[in-house]
Amino acid sequence: MRFRWHNWTAAILVVVACAAIAGGLVWNRSRKVPSLAERMNRLPAGTSAVYLDFESLRKSGLMALLSGQNVTEDADYRAFVASTGFDYRADLDSALVGFANSEVFIVATGRFDWKAIQAHTKRSNGICRNGVCRMPATTPKRVVSFTPLHNSMIGMAVSTNDWAVLKLQDNIPNLLPPPDAPVWAGGFGEALRNNESLPAGTKLFVKALGDAKVVTLGLQSSGDGAELRLRAECATEGAAGGLESQLRGVTEVFRKYLENVQQKPNSSDLSGILTSGTFARERSVVTGRWAVQRGFLEKLLSGQL
User: Fold this and answer.
1) Whose CA is closest to 268, among 225, 239, 236?
2) Together in a domain, 191 and 158
3) How far is CA 98 from CA 67, 161, 260, 262, in A?
4) Tens-binned pLDDT, residue by residue, of the chain (305 aa)
């Protein structure tokens, strides 16, 4: 059995590249960067999110593998780098990406040249007014808008709304509990139930998580590889017990399926990860852990899966 992640990983990388392409508004780093919790409070209520700590990825050596992704060769991105000197692989420190209906929001930190960004925006048929800029997105009928939120942080939106980025100026408590991990994703059960763009082999797990109130997945370094950690908050202890049973059951079904097709779990693809799952429950919260080998991460980031 071969699992293909091309569409899923490309989507995440394109969003991250958009953060780089849409630019930022940083003059210097004299003030402390707002905490992750403060950044999350910028996202619209009910937003699902993905977070990437690029500083940690650079230190681990995994950032270099992104150079093998086609997204870094995008013509728009190459033009942006040529005219502004901004390269997300070196200049972007973090990206918090939120998904709300058909809109994408990004709160990013890093080092940017605002004057160069403004000039590039105007050359790309965009405009800037009172510190807020917008330019046409690659997708027809959508617009990229962006504005400074701090001296080393920008807000960005990709939407049919010309000035959607202004939604990031609000400060609304976010209900997602961010994991202590350099890479994580979080969302609400209802959004998971309606998500059809998932990697093969994961849909049974996501279906089980669809009844949870809030779900987070964090990727944390562990030995020579990493560990994927789940936290699912349920409405009641009974619901949590049912979810724990479902996750154990799905894992066992997957293991038996591999046995039936006379295939052993492979640590280099999803089969090895999904069959390694272990689960526990404390009152209304279910936790899970999956082992992720470094070889799998290298293949994923280099586009080989």
Assistant:
1) 225
2) no
3) 24, 16, 40, 41
4) 333 333 434 444 444 444 444 443 333 334 578 889 899 999 988 888 999 998 887 777 666 655 545 444 455 556 666 766 777 777 889 999 998 888 999 998 988 777 887 888 888 889 988 889 998 887 888 898 988 888 888 888 999 999 999 999 877 777 788 888 888 999 887 766 655 555 555 667 777 888 899 999 998 877 777 889 999 999 999 999 999 999 999 899 889 988 888 888 887 778 888 889 999 999 999 999 998 887 787 776 655 65
User: Are 156 and 144 spatial neighbours (Cβ–Cβ below 8 Å)?
Assistant: yes
Which token pair is 279? Answer: 């689960």
Q: Could you give the CA distance from residue 228 to residue 161 in angstroms, rounded to a whole number?
A: 35
Residues spanned by the domain of 198: 186-301
Beta bridge partners of 183: 52, 219
Contacts of 82 (CB under 8 A, 6+ apart): none
Q: Are residues 144 and 251 located together in one domain of the fold?
A: no
**29 and 117 fall within a common domain:** yes
Our count of domains for the chain comes to: 2
Residue 217 lies in a domain: yes
Same domain as 134, residue 18: yes
pTM of the model: 0.79
Q: Which residue has the tokens 């508004």?
A: 25
